[in-house]
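Hello again, I could really use a second opinion on something today. I've been puzzling over a protein and I'd love to understand its fold better. I'm sending you its amino acid sequence along with the backbone structure tokens. It would help a lot if you went through both lines with me. I've dropped the whole record in just underneath, so have a look.
***
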Amino acid sequence: MTESRYQPDTGCAATAEQRGDLLMATAPPAERWLLIESRLPWPRDALSVLGASGGGLGVEVARLCREARVRPVLIRRYGRIDRTVPRRWAMVDSRPGQESVRWGELSTDEQLLDVLSGQIEGEPSTEPIYLVCTHGRHDACCAVRGRPVAAALAAAYPDRTWECSHVGGDRFAANIVLLPHSLFYGHVQQSQAVDLAKQYDEGVVVPEYYRGSGAVSAPVQAAQHFARTVGHSQAVAALRPINVRQSAPTRWQVTLAGPDSRPFLVEVAAHTVTIDARMTCAAQPPGHIRQYTLESPLPRA
């Protein structure tokens, strides 16, 4: 689908809403993040803007990030950019119990290699970060739906809010990621964005728009979802995984920390569903969706 033919009401996000695609357990892997401030237009392949022409630095940054299990994204402020201040980078650890944020100034793109190698550590920060995907070159729905959400968040939290490049799940636009816990929210409306941020600041998950935490695997995300549906804690820090055992190719036994850290077991199974629809605005049908079901009764909280 070309941009000139794009219609918001027939885009991948609108049709996913109409189908009622499940948000549960759709957060992509994101244990750690490298945020890279950029003031250039973002191409479809975001990291290709790094360094001199040819994209070699972007390829190297992408390789190092894969090896270190780090998710790189470009970031920029909403609205007019202040070019008198230095660009910034951040390294975010989202792993349960290790959540942290470190910021630094970015004098050249090549400096990112020293950041990834640990030669530059940056300054620690306790401020949360709100990312809104607005990567229109990757998918028009992300820009059309994401920019109003970014505007609302930036008006309320100008220092915490950043537009960002592709984070995964175009059909769930507008997508918000709340760091450092790597909480993914989808189909967020402009009117809901500030409340989601406030709830996060208070340490609470909002199930209605919650895709899951990229800091844990999809089976764990599903297990946490099912635990919350029977009354277990909505706290961000609750229901941490203690053990995950794959009992069959598409079946997992997930042990979660319950009240007072008492563990309980959740058994989930994955099923692939094929639908005659596009998963992104640029894709062709059919689409393939992985969904999870609860395979054993759960104790109520």
About this structure: The first strand starts at residue 32 and ends at 37. The chain has six helices and 14 strands. The radius of gyration is 19 Å.
